[in-house]
């Protein structure tokens, strides 16, 4: 298990590093060296550090500098920090003005303390008092605790006349385990080359003294301590509770919303041989999937023909012309009368191969009027559920963002805060939209189309969830990964099923689904009998079958039933054999031509280890450098 996690962590780090090359500016790291042209002297540098039992270091520095006749605003100190190991906080400069920043020429790995007034300058000798805390986090080791501290900063800008540094520990230790280093950054010179050190065991204090210490020379002390030496040190592990809160509370909220708004009333599927009385195919198409689509509107052409409003003349192969026969019935739905009126625009004919650019706008307006028809008491789908469906997308993204930020904070990996939401949300949201669409339109799309879109959506969701779980497993724990994946799945399911019908909608849906099942399962004898009773029965039903994605199924069932030539059709080929397959082909010819016109007009076409921070001077906590400004 450990090897797997190490591999995943390594892979994640490589992957993030790769992304970093594209999305983040490369900053050249490097050591900051002393300014050889400093025009001031440092008389003394005194540091008193007291370490609390929880490994918080309280540092007080007294720096005496002599600017001579050269005017300066003050001094600055830059203190390196590592978010994984320790941070710098509670900075204070006594009575002197203090400006604190982490965005400077030294990069984000330093806390910069600028002491002095930019509007005033000083000359001669001046004493500065600085204090700050180093909050050291719990290390990863289960065997030892650690001490690593820069007793004197490596990169002070000038030589120092007198150096005094004390480090007082909270309790005794094996003082023989202490290791001291001195020299420039990266050096491991003996401490005696520049400093003398003594240990006041009674007061548990390490004392460092130095005279005429050159610029660029520092001192570090480090030691392995018994496990438990530091008592309750700060730990970022407590932040994981926010991860668990996010993956518990947010899915719970989504589940409550589904329970309250997303459940359908009971749908009773009735036996139907005809569409619900008085309903057009466009209305059936809207009710069955809750979306007004182009195909729903275009199905009205055959509906108008079947009603005797228009006829279709085929002048040559695939060249269709609509001929207006009569005005629409005033009792027809408003959207139907609007579409029929604007289809011809006061003309008697409409060439489908030469539709105007305005046709796209006509279809869009018709779809809006279809939606308006099912408002108020006639509402089909629960508006609160539709709102909650949208809310699940927001909650889904919020959960992933919170988990990513907590994981990045916990693992000290800032990349995760930026890139994990991107690489998880992009495939997840696209996948969720596709799965939701196929679920909503499962009764109006062909099985082949549903299969393709749903498969792509599920693959995207698996990719998003897989990345999500893998990163949490690698950087947090297996339990957290399982919890995150479970929450991910719950959010997906709540979103998919977060759509409900009103009671009125459920009643109509029961009839429509019963009618659809008849189209899907009707046997030859039943269809033959119905056709004998009504020779136009096949044509009556075809527009409705089309909006439910069942037109090919309906046509195939009539392959052995003579349907004859419809009254509203006039073809160029007198030898044409009229069959259900021919009619289906005619249907798709005109819808293809009209969809092409919609595209041209711009219309919508959517049918672990311990700390290893040292070993040389400048490698401990604190330290850094500074100078005058």
TrEMBL record:
Q: What is the lineage of its organism?
A: Bacteria, Bacillati, Bacillota, Erysipelotrichia, Erysipelotrichales
- By its UniProt entry, which InterPro entries does this protein fall under? DUF2207 (IPR018702), YciQ-like_C (IPR048389)
Residue ranges annotated for the Predicted membrane protein YciQ-like C-terminal domain, each copy included: 272-443, 446-558
Statement: the UniProt record of this protein carries the keyword Iron-sulfur: no
DUF2207 domain location:
43-223
Q: Does the keyword Nucleotide-binding apply?
A: no
State which residue ranges cross the membrane. 242-259, 391-412, 418-439, 451-473, 479-501
Provide the alphabetized UniProt keywords.
Membrane, Signal, Transmembrane, Transmembrane helix
Q: Which residues form the signal peptide?
A: 1-28
> Under which name does UniProt file this protein?
Putative membrane protein
């Amino acid at each position: 298990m450990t090897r797997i996690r190490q591999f995943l962590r390594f892979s994640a780090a490589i992957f993030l590093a790769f992304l970093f090359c594209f999305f983040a500016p490369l900053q050249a790291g490097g050591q900051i060296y002393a300014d050889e042209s400093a025009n001031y002297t440092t008389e003394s540098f005194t540091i008193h550090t007291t370490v609390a039992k929880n490994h918080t270091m309280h540092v007080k520095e007294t720096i005496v500098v002599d600017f001579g006749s050269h005017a300066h605003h003050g001094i600055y100190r830059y203190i390196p920090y590592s978010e994984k190991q320790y941070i710098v906080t509670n900075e204070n400069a006594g009575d002197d003005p203090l400006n604190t920043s982490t965005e400077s020429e030294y990069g984000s790995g330093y806390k910069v303390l600028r002491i002095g007034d930019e509007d005033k300058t000083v000359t001669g000798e001046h004493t500065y008092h600085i204090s700050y805390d180093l909050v050291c986090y719990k290390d990863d080791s289960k065997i030892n605790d650690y001490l690593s501290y820069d007793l004197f900063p490596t990169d002070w800008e000038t030589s120092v006349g007198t150096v005094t540094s004390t480090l007082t520990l909270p309790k005794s230790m094996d003082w023989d385990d202490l290791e001291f280093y001195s020299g420039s950054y990266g050096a491991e010179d003996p401490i005696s080359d520049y400093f003398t050190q003594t240990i006041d065991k009674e007061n548990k204090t390490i004392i460092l003294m130095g005279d005429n210490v050159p610029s660029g020379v520092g001192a570090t002390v480090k030691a392995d301590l018994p496990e438990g030496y530091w008592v309750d040190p700060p730990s970022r592990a407590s932040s994981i509770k926010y991860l668990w809160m996010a993956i518990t509370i947010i899915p719970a909220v989504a589940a409550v919303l589904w329970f309250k708004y997303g459940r359908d009333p009971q749908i009773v599927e009735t036996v139907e041989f005809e569409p619900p009385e008085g309903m057009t195919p466009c209305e059936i198409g809207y009710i069955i999937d809750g979306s007004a689509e182009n195909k729903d509107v275009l199905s009205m052409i055959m509906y108008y023909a079947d009603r005797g409003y228009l006829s279709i003349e085929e002048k040559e192969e695939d060249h269709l012309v609509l001929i207006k026969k009569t005005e629409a019935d005033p009792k027809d739905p408003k959207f139907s009368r609007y579409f029929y009126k604007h289809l011809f625009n006061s003309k008697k004919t409409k060439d489908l191969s030469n539709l105007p650019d305005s046709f796209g706008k006509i279809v869009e307006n018709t779809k809006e009027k279809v939606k308006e028809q099912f408002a108020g008491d006639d509402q089909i789908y629960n508006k609160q559920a539709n709102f909650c469906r949208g809310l699940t997308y927001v909650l889904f993204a919020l959960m992933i963002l919170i988990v990513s930020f907590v994981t990045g904070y916990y693992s000290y990996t800032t990349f995760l805060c930026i890139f994990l939401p991107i690489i998880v949300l992009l495939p997840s949201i696209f996948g969720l939209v596709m799965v939701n669409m196929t679920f909503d339109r499962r009764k109006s799309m062909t099985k082949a189309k549903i299969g393709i879109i749903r498969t792509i959506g599920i693959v995207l969701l698996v990719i998003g969830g897989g990345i999500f779980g893998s990163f949490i497993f690698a950087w947090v724990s297996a339990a957290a990964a399982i919890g995150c994946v479970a929450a991910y799945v719950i959010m997906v399911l709540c979103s998919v099923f977060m759509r409900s019908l009103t009671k009125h909608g459920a009643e109509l849906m029961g009839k429509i689904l019963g009618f659809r099942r008849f189209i899907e399962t009707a046997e030859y004898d039943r269809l033959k009998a119905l056709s004998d009773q009504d020779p136009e029965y096949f044509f009556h039903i075809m527009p409705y079958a089309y909006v439910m994605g069942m037109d090919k199924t309906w046509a195939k069932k009539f392959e052995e039933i003579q349907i004859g030539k419809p009254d509203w059709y006039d073809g160029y080929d007198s030898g044409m054999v009229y069959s259900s397959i021919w009619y289906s082909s005619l249907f798709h010819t005109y819808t293809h031509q009209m969809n092409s016109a919609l595209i041209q007009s711009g219309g919508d076409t959517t049918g672990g280890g311990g700390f290893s921070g040292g070993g040389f001077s400048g490698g401990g906590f604190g330290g850094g450098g500074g100078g005058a400004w």
